[in-house]
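Data's thin. Show one?
=====
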Amino acid sequence: MTGRRSASASAVLRAVLDEGAIARSTIARRTGLSAAAVTGHVAELMRRGFLTELPEVAGAVGRPFVPVDLDTERFVVCGAHVAADHLTVGLLDLRGKVLAQQEAPHHGAEPAVQVAQIAELLDDLLVGHAPERTALGLGVATGGWVDEASGTVVEHGLLGWHGVPLRGLLTEVTGLDVRVDGHSRALIHAERLLGQQRARRSVVQLFTGNVVDAAFATGDTVHHGPRSAAGAVAHLRVDDSEEPCRCGRSGCLEATVSERTIARKAVEAHIIEKPIFADVLRLAELGNKNAVALFHERARIIGQAAALLFDVLNPEILIVLDQSVRDVEGCLSTIRDEVARRSWICQSPQENVVMSSFPGTELATAGGAAILNALYEDPLFVNLANAS
């Protein structure tokens, strides 16, 4: 009975997320729940502070009704992303809108030091941007192999992390409900909740930064695999690459297209003086031909991986999250062209290969989505007595 009650409450809350201000009778039609059940769930969700009533409006045939909507003022969701070189911390409302975010280098510090830094950054954001709001929880996303069930970073080669109990460490320091997941899976949750409607049918998320990984979902299921190891594409072999990889082989996808590799190649080509990815990206944004060519070649290789994922998984859409796709003209087109050339399955790369729905806020959104997904799957999961 408890499971059925949670599922029904979830259906009601998701209907409001999708539709915005909505009548109870419309929620009943959308969800297939009885009017009495919807009334009861709405009352419970209002009591918990997730929904609020709006002023009465006239109906289509003149009969007034009182719509309900998400209360985006009472709570805040905290999100953090741990990248190879820096931390991103953000605050989101219940619709996933990023209210504030902050980025800081972590200088490769030990896990406990990074945990303390996340807590400090989070405190600063809460005091500065949400002093009157209640924090529902903290979602954390990172690359590498993440066991979502235990909240453990099983392995993150670039950070040198092995078996780091990230959820436990952050729970102890922040006192919040903490959820940890791989960033590609977290971003799939974000897309399905807040972004691409087509992602609810089937979707592949391909993340390319210093870490390269992927995630896949179909229907209501985001695939994890044993110990959440699904989506490990870092060591896919790509054509025309002899780039040495930390795994001992050469030509692996991550080693070939990682941001550190691109920065190094830009130095070797005398495009920049120091191997700083942001510098070569900025030059490409400004139209430097050599920098643009470097990113287009990278995009071609990313397209190889995208084509393979299309043919193996046959998703409705494939989302590429990469800074150059967002900021450098022609990169997305190059990926689509390579998919068109290589894939047997993808018939329309222009429609099926897309960029993230969260340009500029992807990392904070990934973290926050770990908590938002838990909320919308089970709005009754939150222990409001422990929320701070």
Remarks:
- The longest strand covers residues 134-142.
- The chain has a mean pLDDT of 92.
